[in-house]
Amino acid sequence: MRKKIYNIIEPTKNITTIEKIYDIFMILVIIASLLPLTIKTHFTFYAILENVTTLIFIIDYLLRLMTADFKLKQGKISFIKYPFTFLAMTDLIAILSSLLFWNNTFRLFKIVRMIRTVRVFKLFRYSRSINMLIHVLKKQKESLLIVGALVVIYIFISALVIFNVEPTTFGNFFDALYWATISLTTVGYGDIYAVSAIGKLITMISSILGVAIIALPVSIMTAGYLEEIETRRHRHKRPNN
C-alpha cells in the first residue's frame, strides 16, 4: 500500500495517468494557495481556500514522510533524514506559516505572508520542465559561475570608475553599484544617471558591453537545454530499437 502511494505522489520517468492527475492537482492547489496573498482585505472565500489548501499540504507532507524510505532508500533512518531535505523543509515552512497566520496574534508579523510564498518551490517537485531546467543548471554550473563572476567583476569596476569620475552625482559607492547594475542590464530607470560627457560615454560603453555579457548565460542555458532535450529523446528511443 505504501509503495503504491509513493508511486503516485513521487514523479517518475514513465508517468501513469493517476500520477499525472495528482501532479496537475497539486500544481493547481499550490497556485490556489497563493491567491490569498494577492489581497489585503479579508474575504471568507479566501479564508476557506487557505484552510483547504493547507489541509491538502499537510496530507501530502504526511504521505511523503510515511514513504520516505522508498525515496531515500536508507531504511528507517530515511524517516529521520527526510524532514531535513530541501523540499520537505519547504513543505513544512509553508504549512507552519499558514497555521501561524490563522492566529490573530501573529497577524502583526507581515513577514509570515512573505514566508508563505515558499510554496512556489513546491512546484519544483511536480513540474518536469522545471526539474529539467534544474538538471541543466547543475550540468552548466561551472560555465554559469564563470559568467557570474565576470558580471560581478564588471559591475564592480564600472561602479568604481563612475564613482570617481562623477563624485557629486553618486553620493556613495552603493549608488554607483546600483547604476552599474542598471546600466549592465540596459534597464535604465533614470533615477540615477551620469551628467558629464565622460560619464555618459562610460554609460554607453557599459550598456553595449552589458548586452553581450547578459547574453552569455542565456546562450549557455539554451545550449544546455537543447542538449538535455536531445539526450532524453535518444534515451526514450533506445528501448524501441
UniProtKB/TrEMBL annotation:
Would I find Ion transport among this entry's keywords?
A: yes
Provide the protein name: Ion transporter
Q: Which Gene3D superfamilies does UniProt cross-reference here?
A: 1.10.287.70, Voltage-gated potassium channels. Chain C
The UniProt entry lists the main location of this chain as: membrane
> What membrane topology does this protein have?
Multi-pass membrane protein
The molecular function GO annotations come to:
voltage-gated potassium channel activity
SUPFAM superfamilies cross-referenced by the UniProt entry: Voltage-gated potassium channels
Record's GO cellular component terms: voltage-gated potassium channel complex
* Origin superkingdom: Bacteria
The UniProt record lists the keyword Acetylation: no
